[in-house]
């Protein structure tokens, strides 16, 4: 009996020692971890501490009960707590506030699941057939350890960052080793009278200690989960947690039917609230993306200074006019160039130059508002373009002259009142069924601008292109 007691005691001393070393290494890792990963390492530390409490209780019990009947203490609670900390780590995600709230729902679901598991475990231990329940208890612990390892592996396969991947790589190696070792240990204990199998329990602690002591995770360097893996991981974890909670609740129905019903309602409520939160988040994100897309589309075809269409927007309108039915009354385009704009910038400064361009844009817009379907755009720099669908050359010249007079009459503040802003305009009107290419049309308008400048600036020059 003394040899048996001594063997059991020394076995648990070895286990508790390895757990203590693993706790010290994990505490060091918590202090060295980056801020956003520190809660994860703290959860692993808490899990190791809970296992340390459980093995310490077993060590104390081995002194008084060498046969290991666990009359004095019950370490199963602390084993359940240790598993829950690891499930909580696999459920925790601090990416966004909404994801954090969803993680909280998963953590509460895991707490409910582990609590129900402990109720089922206590019922098996304290039942009238407790002496014959060793096989059932072994299967219960296999289920808990296997589920913890599976949920951690799923999270590991869906990690995004390298530091997060290292953490879950360590935890996955630990939980898988712990599940295998615990399953072998429990069956050896049931099958034999020896207490040497307790030494197997040191193996998971040795594995996690070796991984924690390494400065770099070289063994994970080639692993990069794909986008599909990350999405599947985020989808599977909450569903698996809720499904496991429902299964455990149904299993506890023979122990306490009221508790089982309440647990089922709580699990379904948590899952529904979590899904509602995620759906709300995605709908909000979709609305924000829609607004952002509209803003980007607007910015892509509009000039940020004047608010007019830019060159891309102008070509889009021109292409639409070309693709549409031809206008029998003609199609006029006017290109406008502010006179001596470089000298204006040098004399008054670039801010005044910007105010000048805005002033010209407003004047052109006011004239264009009186013309149906007229389009104003900033072609680039100090150049503007007006499109006049179904407007003859004479009418287009009249509108451009009105704009030229409006620009010259009211200089933008705070320029001196005697400041005079002028522009030269070149107009081209297409008459006929066949229109020239867009580039040719703009080249002809640009040539008309140069003709206006050659005649002394501050004027409009027009030409008609008659096609068959």
Describe what this molecule looks like in 3D:
By secondary structure, the chain is α+β, with helices and mostly antiparallel strands. 67% of the residues lie in helices and 8% in strands. It contains 14 helices and 5 strands. Strands 2-3-1-4-5 form a 5-stranded mixed beta sheet, sandwiched between helices. β4, α14 and β5 form a beta-alpha-beta unit. About 1% of the residues have low confidence.
Please outline what is shown here:
The chain is built from 14 helices and five strands. The relative contact order is 0.07. It has helices at residues 2-32, 38-64, 76-91, 97-126, 134-156, 162-191, 202-213, 227-251, 257-301, 311-323, 341-348, 350-369, 393-409, 438-454; strands at 331-338, 375-380, 383-389, 423-431, 460-466.
Low-confidence stretches: 68-72
The structure class reads alpha+beta
Mean pLDDT score: 86
Q: What is the percentage of strand-forming residues?
A: 5-15%
Largest sheet: 5 strands, mixed
The level of helicity is 55-70%
Q: Taking Cα atoms only, what radius of gyration do you get, to the nearest Å?
A: 39 Å
Lateral strand order in the biggest sheet: 2-3-1-4-5
Strand-and-helix sequence, N→C? HHHHHHHHHHEHHEEHEHE
Distance between the termini: 117 Å
């Amino acid at each position: 009996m003394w040899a048996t007691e001594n063997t059991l005691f020394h076995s648990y001393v070895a286990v508790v020692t390895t757990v203590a070393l693993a706790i010290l290494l994990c505490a060091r890792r918590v202090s060295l971890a980056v801020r956003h990963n520190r809660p994860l390492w703290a959860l692993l530390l808490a899990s190791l501490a809970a296992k340390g409490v459980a093995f310490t209780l077993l060590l104390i019990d081995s002194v008084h009960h060498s046969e290991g009947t666990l009359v004095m203490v019950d370490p199963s609670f602390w084993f359940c707590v240790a598993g829950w900390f690891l499930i909580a780590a696999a459920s925790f995600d601090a990416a966004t506030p909404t994801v954090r709230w969803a993680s909280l729902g998963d953590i509460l679901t895991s707490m409910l699941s582990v609590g129900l598991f402990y109720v089922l475990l206590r019922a098996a231990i304290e039942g009238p057939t407790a002496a014959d329940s060793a096989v059932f208890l072994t299967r219960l612990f296999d289920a808990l350890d296997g589920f913890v390892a599976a949920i951690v592996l799923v999270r590991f396969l869906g990690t995004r960052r390298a530091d997060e991947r290292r953490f879950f790589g360590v935890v996955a190696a630990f939980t898988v080793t712990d599940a295998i070792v615990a399953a072998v240990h429990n069956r050896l204990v049931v099958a034999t009278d020896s207490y040497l199998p307790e030494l197997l329990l040191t193996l998971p602690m040795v594995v996690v200690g070796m991984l924690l002591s390494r400065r770099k995770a070289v063994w994970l360097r080639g692993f990069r989960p794909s986008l599909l893996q990350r999405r599947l991981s985020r989808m599977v974890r909450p569903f698996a947690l809720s499904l496991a909670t429902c299964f455990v609740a149904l299993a506890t129905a023979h122990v306490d039917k009221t508790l089982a019903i309440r647990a089922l309602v709580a699990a379904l409520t948590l899952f529904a609230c979590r899904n509602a939160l995620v759906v709300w988040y995605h709908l909000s994100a979709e609305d924000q993306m829609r607004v952002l897309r509209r803003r980007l589309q607007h910015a892509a075809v509009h000039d940020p200074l004047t608010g007019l269409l830019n060159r891309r927007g102008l070509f889009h309108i021109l292409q639409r006019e070309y693709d549409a039915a031809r206008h029998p009354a003609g199609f006029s385009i006017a290109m406008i160039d502010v006179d001596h704009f470089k000298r204006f910038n040098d004399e008054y400064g670039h801010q005044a130059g910007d105010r000048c361009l805005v002033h010209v844009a407003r004047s052109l817009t006011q004239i264009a508002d009186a013309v149906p379907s007229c389009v104003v755009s900033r072609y680039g720099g100090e150049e503007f373009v007006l499109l006049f669908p179904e407007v003859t050359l004479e009418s287009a010249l009249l509108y451009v002259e009105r704009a030229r007079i409006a620009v010259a009459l009211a200089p933008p503040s705070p320029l001196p009142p005697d400041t005079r802003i002028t522009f030269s305009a070149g107009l081209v009107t297409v008459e006929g069924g066949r229109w020239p290419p867009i580039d040719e049309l703009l080249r002809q308008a640009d040539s008309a601008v140069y003709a206006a400048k050659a005649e002394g600036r501050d004027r409009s020059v027009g030409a008609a292109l008659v096609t068959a």
